[in-house]
Give the backbone structure.
Amino acid sequence: MSQQYNIVICLLILVLLQACSGAGVAPVTNRNEVKEYPATTTQRDNSSQLKAAKKPVIQNKTGYHIVSQGDTLYSIAWRYNFDYREVARWNKINSPYIIYPGQLIRLKPVIKKQGETLKTQVKSPVTTTATKEGAPKQTLPKKKATIVQKEPAIAVNKSEPKPALPKGPVKWSWPSDGKIVKSDSPTSKKGLDILGRAGQQVKAAATGEVVYSGGGLVGYGKLIIIKHNETYLSAYAYNSKLLVKEGDRVKAGEAISVMGQDHTGRTMLHFEIRQNGKPINPTQYLPKKRT
């Protein structure tokens, strides 16, 4: 009897051991199978934030330039690769193209909507009221107060007007001696970069009038822009010293500045020629031999 009892106890122990060993292991049907669970709210939010962060930031282009101290119409047109005559026409600015600090300069043509001209020609309404004598009396609507911004006074130069710039083809010459190098900056791709030495003078590439002399254009350092005729302008950037001012007349080969350094520290001149506001390859106009 006791022997049977021991056998029963042993069987129960074996059953219990088998049950415990099988409870902690899940059956595996495929080792390559990965079960996917739906993403939590937090995970979805983080994913959307990462996607939003990767999107490029688009700058708002208003189509206007706010005039700063030292700006000229020529320098503004140069900055945005426009013909100065177009910018003047869009803003109804006549020669000698005087602008003022704080003034808004339009950078695109004015497109009138259909019927806009007709609206401006419609007369203001007139209301009629009765007087004591019974005769109608016309009253005009009250005008809204308008704020007129006063422009700063300008000193009038009573000297004789400057002679017109020479007509005909522009006779170009090299503005500096030195090795032509290539650079990856956006500014350098618009013209020529000519290496030089400290203190080397930069010369006017052709006869003309200085229409900009300053340091207000980003990427050009101290810059000089010369107008040669109604079509061609030339520019001289990265100067350490400017020897001419706006309004000066210069001759081809005349010293206009002292060479300075670019953003990498190299002593060099950046030279550009623009035709109707667009950069062109200067080597197509400069003489093949340097004198």
